[in-house]
Design brief:
Oligomer: heterodimer
CATH superfamily of the largest domain in chain A: FAD/NAD(P)-binding domain
Strand order of the largest sheet of chain B: 2-3-4
Number of strands of chain A: 20
Largest interface: A-B, 30 and 35 residues
Largest sheet of chain A: 5 strands, parallel
Distance between the termini of chain B: 11 Å
Shape of chain B: elongated
Number of helices of chain B: 2
Largest sheet of chain B: 3 strands, antiparallel
Shape of chain A: elongated
Radius of gyration of chain B: 13 Å
Helix content of chain A: 40-55%
Order of helices and strands of chain B: EEEEHH
CATH class of the largest domain in chain A: Alpha Beta
């Protein structure tokens, strides 16, 4: 994985962005965290969280001008959370903020603060806590004199006293009643000689007297850099009401003190004043919140507005907080939900997994559990596709030889079967020496409903002039999903070779994964969807409309194929079928087969199918054989579109999942039948096939363990011909074992009338002896 | 790495070829280039080694997966 690409992916996941309230707060109080504590009634922890960011919580808790509330997303569903009233409820709950603790400072410096307003006191608190010597000069007889003029109902003097008490036992020296004439010879110049840094919190008035000492703005106030709070003097910083004039904002004064302190600290260390400050101050949040998910809730009105919220009212109000999260992809994807985090975290873990030098690669299975279906990108405000991330990671794992063999081995052996002589067939239409089009049903339709392949081919031959060729094989999608570029290339080249031999006809495919593979990876091959072709050539006659409404599930590989989606719906209309949408084709889900997720992580794949089939009680209609069979496997009645095109007397929605063994058998039989029926070639059925008797329960167990009947046969034949087997005398069962390439199979069986009754099977990859 | 432990003995299993009861013995198990000794039941005559299902789908699978993620 490319590091720059990884950073780009990470930056597009916005879940870790601050919520709108916190981003709008000049000092970024964690309101979401406070609300979560308050809704649990934990006022003490909420107060502690508030006081961690706010040095004067009692004061700010009473008089904050709360820009956070204007940004609150709850305003779109009821009314903004009354965050300020909740902060007041926190500070009124009777918890006093602890006195400031002074850290040890190796490079102790001397700081002068002129003006004991909120910004100046904030500087004193921040730099005092860092262990510097701070001397605070105030012309008036008390600190925070301006706040004492507030109505005590709004800001009680006890709140001011409580916050000032935090300075007890600190080394901050308060020099009250000490006015400094900054313009005089004993003023700023003298301070600059005695101190390493100076902060000026001079209040709202212009400072014309300082014209010769510091640069002034046009309105006569000090010229103060908005990012660094620097003045024209390298040792002197300033902020507070001097920046805002008459419009007093306590939280902005606090902000100025905080960020001026940061600049002073950087200046004292010789660090850059401007670097890495892009998140400083109030700003819009990138965090997306889908507020339409939430029912509107009115604001809680305190019974006694003057006293503010009671604790019960505060809990009720805090409970209205959503809280803000994006997680749009996690909400729609059981895979992303399964691992308990969100893409930004997953991407970092995946990258670490690839670059780890020592220790286990813990994220391998996560990477292989993604279905690559693209739903996450469809719902993501930033269009982030976890499938891209996971596929890239898989490519890295394969390249380094670190792909766990067990994850994709079965699917790749199935691919090998579909590319073998047992299934591959390439012919012009009987009686033709060229093909204008080539029917490519795909390996899974042939595996699931071979009769549909035969019927469709016959219909295409009857309705398209000039020869309809047939090609049975596999497009290589499983190899691409497993990041086996070697096998994928082989599959593409094998297809291309037959396609060229047949005269490069337009390919008509019944499989949306094949369609995707051809359009994405073989642009030289003209390809059409069977559904668009059927719409054009017309449906065969003779179908009666179904009475019941169907719910349409579009295969995930058609998510962006609006033409195919449209054809499918028009074909349903032609058949007189009433159909409803689930979430619409753009938001369709995977059936669990995509990306080979069901082999690497069956539990997650089942969650994906189960969520999908729980969306609607109607029978599902789909046009992917794997989707239909996976729905059936999990107990959902589902039909394939071809069940409507070529209706039969039975109940196609009740057809069970054929399972892996039958899928291979069906492919082989289809080829033999087509060769025999259409091309009149003599085909020998596989010889020497022993006959198995497998109960439904044993069959289901073998399917779950990915053991094919052919594996069972090979094991028994090996045991019977070599004599290498065990006998369990109590039951009379034989136990046989056979290693086929990389897997050892164990089969327990008995023999009845020359047939083999299978009692159980299992396998392991470890080799013995 | 933890080694797979031997399965609970199943007294009475006979090797069909040698007609001998299985007995506990040390066997080399290997996966992805890692080899380690395991105690398993085997035929004293031909050496046919038995892996019970509980072992194959239990400890052995755990070790396989741990080695695959190494």
């Amino acid at each position: 994985m490319d590091g720059q690409q990884v950073r780009d992916w990470e930056s597009r996941c916005i879940e870790e962005q601050a919520p709108a309230c916190t981003a709008a707060c000049p000092v970024h109080v964690d309101m979401r965290g406070m609300m979560e504590l308050l809704r649990k009634g934990d006022f003490k922890a909420a107060h502690a969280l508030f006081a961690r960011i706010i040095p004067f919580p009692a004061i700010i808790g009473h008089i904050c001008d709360h820009p956070c509330e204007s940004a609150c997303k709850r305003s779109a569903a009821g009314a903004a959370i009354q965050i300020h009233q909740l902060e007041r409820a926190c500070v009124d709950a009777g918890f006093a903020a602890a006195p400031f603790r002074t850290n040890k400072q190796l490079a102790k410096k001397r700081i002068a603060v002129v003006g004991a307003g909120l910004s100046g006191l904030c500087v004193a608190a921040e730099l005092g806590v860092k262990g510097h010597t701070v001397v605070l000069f105030e012309a008036r007889p008390e600190a925070l004199a301006r706040l004492r003029t507030y109505d005590p109902q709004i800001l009680p003097g006890t709140a001011i006293d409580a916050d000032l008490a935090r300075f007890a036992n600190t080394s901050v020296e308060f020099r009250l009643n000490e006015e400094i004439d900054l313009a005089s010879a004993d003023g700023l110049a003298a301070l600059a000689d005695q101190f390493d840094a100076i902060y000026l919190g001079l209040g709202p008035d212009p400072q014309p007297a300082l014209a010769g000492v510091l640069a002034l703005a046009a309105d006569g106030h000090l010229a103060i850099d908005a990012l660094t709070f620097a003045t024209s003097h390298p040792k002197v910083f300033a902020g507070g009401s001097q920046r805002y004039g008459a419009g007093y904002s306590p939280i902005n004064s606090l902000q100025d003190g905080r960020y001026a302190s940061l600049s002073i600290d950087r200046m004292l260390q010789g660090a850059s004043l401007t670097a890495n400050r892009d998140t400083q101050g109030a700003q819009p949040s990138r965090l997306y919140v889908n507020t339409s998910r939430y029912a509107p809730l009115p604001a809680v009105i305190p019974a006694d507005p003057e006293r503010g919220f009671s604790q019960a009212e505060a809990i009720a109000e805090a409970t209205r907080c959503f809280p803000c999260h994006c997680l749009e992809c996690v909400k729609v994807c059981p895979f992303l939900e399964h691992y308990g985090a969100y893409p930004k975290r997953y991407i970092r873990e995946i990258y670490n997994n690839e670059t780890i030098i020592m220790g286990p690669r813990k994220t391998n299975r996560l990477i292989d559990s993604c279905t690559l279906c693209g739903l996450c990108a469809a719902v993501c405000p930033e269009d982030l596709a976890m499938g891209e991330v996971c596929l890239s990671a898989r490519q890295g794992m394969t390249a380094k030889g670190k792909m766990p063999p067990s994850h994709h081995d079965f699917a790749l052996r199935d691919l090998a079967f579909s590319r073998s002589d047992a299934f591959v067939l390439a012919r012009h239409q009987p009686g033709f020496e060229r093909s204008t089009v080539l029917f490519y049903p795909g390996c899974q339709l042939a595996a699931s409903s071979p009769e549909h392949v035969e019927n469709t081919y016959a219909h295409l031959c009857a309705t398209i002039d000039g020869g309809v060729g047939l090609l049975l094989g596999c497009c290589g999608a499983p190899a691409q999903w497993a990041a086996r570029e070697d096998l994928f290339t082989e599959s593409r080249e094998a297809f291309a070779s037959e396609w060229r031999r047949l005269g490069q006809p337009t390919v008509i495919t019944a499989c949306s994964s094949c369609f995707r593979m051809f359009t994405d990876h073989q642009p030289e091959v003209p390809v059409q969807s069977l559904w668009s072709v059927l719409e054009r050539v017309g449906l065969p006659a003779g179908a009666s409309p179904r009475a019941a409404t169907l719910a349409i599930h579009d295969p995930c590989t058609t998510r962006h194929e609006t033409a195919i989606q449209g054809s499918v719906r028009r074909l349903l209309d032609q058949r007189g079928v009433a159909a409803v949408e689930l979430d619409g084709p753009g938001l369709t889900t995977c059936c669990g087969f995509g990306g080979l997720a069901e082999f690497a992580n069956p539990a997650v794949a089942d969650k994906i199918v189960d969520r999908r089939i729980g969306q609607n009680d109607a029978d599902y209609l789909t046009y992917c054989a794997m989707c239909r069979d996976n729905f059936a496997r999990r107990g959902k009645r589902a039909i394939h579109l071809l069940d409507l095109v070529f209706p039969t007397a039975g109940d196609p929605a009740a057809r069970p999942d054929p399972g892996f063994s039958m899928r291979q058998e069906n492919r082989g039989r289809l080829k033999r039948r087509l060769l025999h029926d259409l091309w009149e070639e003599t085909v020998n059925e596989p010889a020497d096939r022993i006959e198995l008797i497998v109960s439904a329960a044993v069959h289901a167990d073998l399917e779950r363990k990915l053991i094919l009947h052919d594996d069972v046969r090979q094991t028994i034949v090996h045991a019977e011909t070599s004599g290498e087997k065990l006998i369990a005398p109590k039951t009379g069962h034989f136990i046989a074992s056979h290693r086929a390439v990389s897997i050892t199979y164990w089969i327990e069986y008995t023999v009845e009338d020359g047939r083999y009754v299978i009692h159980r099977g299992y396998s392991h990859r470890m080799q013995l002896g | 790495m933890t080694e797979p432990t031997s399965a609970a003995p199943e007294p009475g299993l006979l090797c069909a070829k040698c007609q001998l009861p299985l007995a506990a013995g040390k066997v080399e198990a290997s996966y992805l280039g890692n080899t380690f000794p395991v105690d398993l039941l085997r035929c004293p005559g031909c050496g046919f080694t038995y892996v019970p299902e509980e072992l194959a789908l239990g400890k052995m699978l755990q070790v396989e997966q741990a080695l695959e993620d190494k």
